[in-house]
Design brief:
Blueprint lengths: L3 H13 L1 H4 L2 H6 L3 H11 L3 H45 L17 H6 L14 H6 L4 H8 L3 H12 L4 H8 L3 H22 L1
Helix pairs in contact: 4-5, 8-11, 9-11, 10-11
């Protein structure tokens, strides 16, 4: 706790330099009483105290700037991570969250599976684009899928019907995973466009 004469002297100094002490960085620096004492001694003509005060202020200011830098880095890294996960979620929605159209209300696939219901008792495994296309109940989607190139049909089937990963499809087709990703995205864009046009 500062002695009363020192408190009065500091308050007088603050009043004379009011614009400076409105700055929050200055206010936070002088919350430390040892900095107030250094200031008052430097005003009394002690040059070594003035140097010590300046050194302390530089350190204090650096800490504030470094903390702000770390905060903004963490914030932007978190936002970038969220964007990445949103992109993944849009591209690969959780299969368990898909609603069922089995006439039993608004159940999801996950609820049906955990209820030990045999969802696909007689459905054969989808092994080709033709078999995958036969599972479509939407005629617009059926027609749009048939207009894709053979390569696009194969990649879409392997991605969504057989749940292969890009590197697995790439190994089977002897192409790069980037080519798989690009072809699938083009196919989805084409499907979206054709479905939009067909209304």
């Amino acid at each position: 706790m500062l002695a009363k004469p020192l408190q009065r002297e500091f308050q007088s100094y603050c009043a004379r330099h009011k614009p400076i002490f409105e700055n929050r960085v200055i206010q936070s620096f002088f919350r430390d009483e040892s900095n107030i004492i250094l200031l008052l001694k430097s005003q009394a003509g002690q040059a070594d105290r003035q140097m010590a005060l300046e050194t302390r202020f530089r350190k204090h200011y650096f800490q504030i700037r470094f903390t702000r830098y770390l905060s903004s880095t963490i914030k932007y890294a978190a936002l970038e991570r969220l964007r990445f996960y949103r992109k993944i979620d849009r591209r690969n929605p959780l299969i368990f969250d898909v609603p069922l159209s089995d006439g039993r209300g608004d159940r999801s696939l996950g609820e049906a599976l955990t209820g030990s219901v045999d969802l696909f008792p007689s459905d054969p495994a989808v092994a080709s684009p033709e078999q995958f296309q036969e599972t479509f109940t939407n005629p617009c989607l059926f027609n749009a899928f048939s207009k894709l190139s053979a390569k696009q049909q194969i990649i879409v089937t392997k991605s969504y019907a057989l749940c292969y990963k890009d590197h697995e499809i790439a190994a089977q087709l002897n192409i790069s995973p980037q080519a798989v990703n690009k072809t699938r995205n083009l196919a989805l864009k084409k499907l979206r466009q054709m479905l939009t046009e067909s209304g």
